[in-house]
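Let's study a protein:

___
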Amino acid sequence: MGREVRRVPADWEHPKVNDSYIPLFGDSFSTAAAEWDAGNQKWKEGFRDDYDGGWKPLDGSEEVTTYAKWTGERPVEADYMPDWPEEERTHYQMYETCTEGTPISPVFATPEELARWLTNNGASAFASQTASYDGWLRVCRGGFAPMAVMDGKGLRSGVEALTD
């Protein structure tokens, strides 16, 4: 959870209901659905994820009878950003990922324009904390910052922590 830059088409308008953004996962729906389907198939074969890149036999400790009860329901396409082709993802938009993801900026053509807008508008990097242009630019170019970091400098936004 934190701040994440997403590549979007130039004309992207994040969907809203009653003037509020609908949270959308940034991952690919097709990938998430394929992974869920593969896990469901393995469950039917008597295995579950070992969380180390492999599968281990169901041993009765799972206390549930279906894959959906174990891991959650199959992904729903409406909960995800569209799976645009790479060549359509020409612009940048900053998202908060404390929910599935809602935009905190308009769409911009370059990471520099996005970072400048975030800085000039005092966009939230974490709670009421904003961030410097350099901090925002690093995230705009690199893709993601955790919500917050606790270190020798105290509790601060992940955006600012990346500038160290």
Notes: The chain is about 25% helix and 20% strand. Residues 100 and 116 are 25 Å apart (CA to CA). Residues 2-14+84-161 form one domain.
